[in-house]
Amino acid sequence: MGGEGAMAAANNSLKNNRSLLSKRKDRKALSGSYEQVEIKDFPQATPEKLMEIKERLTKENKKARITYLVGFIVIILIITGGLYAIT
Known about the structure:
Layout: H1 4-26, H2 47-86
């Protein structure tokens, strides 16, 4: 019968995975205490600061949109010029 080698490989793989699991449990990533951890204090966002950020992002997005549009138009012109030159 065929398949004995495949089953032996599967059993061997399961055995190796089980041995790795026991090693992982010994070294937990979140072991220890958090008593001496300092929590950072961040400044509160004021409505004025939020409006300033919103305006800045709006300007940046508008500038990026214009840049993409100009690039797209230039590429289209190059392609149509190349097709026109071919014919």
